[in-house]
Structures are given as structure tokens and as C-alpha cells.
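ESCALATION

Customer reports they have been waiting on this structure for their group meeting. Please prioritize. Original submission:
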Amino acid sequence: MPTKRVALLGCLALLAACAPRAADSSIDAVDAAPPASSQGDVAAADRVTDAPAAAAPAVDAPSDADSDPSGGMPDLDELEQARAAAGCAVSNDIGDLDDIRIYCQMPADVRAFLERENTCQHFAGEEAYDEARRLELETASERYCDGRERIFADLYDRHHDDCALREALIGVGNRYDLFTDVAADHCRPQDVR
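Update from on-call: job pushed to the front of the queue and completed.
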């Protein structure tokens, strides 16, 4: 049972690190969890609950005007405001506020990847309530999700020499857990060894 609790805390911490608006509600859920039963569990739980705070600087924190009080997905008004402020026409396939904010500064290949990845994420969150829907979701997953790590790694390699673009791709990689074979390195001199 303690292993399941630590795994749950780890999942909550990962969710909090990936979705800044969800961090507040996830931390509340972690704080509300019953205390661990042994000293080893306490140490593991402390490491897990500290993870969102350590990961927070890598993700742009939303301003108070952008924060969603429900801690969930942005509402239509927030998405439309972000699209209007983006500086170009942003595809309606983009449903993540951070992706909308960087979309117009990205080259065409990165924009296409953002559209594909957002579509992948959309279908990954859908429920297969019957056989026809299950087939539709499998087809969409094959079309939009298969090979996403390889495509991302290729983009990262292709644009590695552009520091600002590399930083934006690091954010995308962190958001969508795409660093499978790519080492996330930042442009700051102190991070280069």
C-alpha cells in the first residue's frame, strides 16, 4: 500500500510540473493525503512533494490574469485572448496556452509539430465509449501520436544552434514528456560543461 501512495504522489507531482495551473490544486491534494506509515515512505513523499517546486522555474508561470481558478483546462475566453495576443493566426488545433504564446515565433516545422502534438494530446484524453469511437481514437493516435518522440528529437537537433528556439523546444519537451533520447540543455553558460 505505501508503494501505491508514493506512486500516486509521484503522478500528482508530475501533473503539477506539467500544468502550472494545476499545481495549486495538486499540492492541496498531496497535503491532504494521509501521512506515510514508515520513515522511508516519509522521505520518499517529501521528495515527491518537493518536485513541483523544483520544476516550476522551468515552466513559465501564468500571471494572475491568465490563471484558471478551477485549476483545469483554460476556458474559451483565455484561449481566444492568447490567440489575439499571439501576433499571427494561430491554428485552432492548438489548445495549450503556452503553445499559443510561442506559436508565432516558431518556424513552420515547429508550428506543424505543435499542431500535431496538441491534436495527439486531445485524442489521448478522449474516452472510447463504444467500438466505433475506440477505432476512431486508435486511428487518430496512429496518425498524430505515433513517432512523436522521433519527430521532436529531429526538430530539436535541427534547431539546436538557435538558443531561443532550443529553449522553446525544451519547454515543449517538458510539457509533453518528449525527452526520450534528447538531453535538455539550456543556453546559459553555467549549464554548459
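Sent to customer with the following note: Residues 76-191 form one domain.
Escalation resolved.
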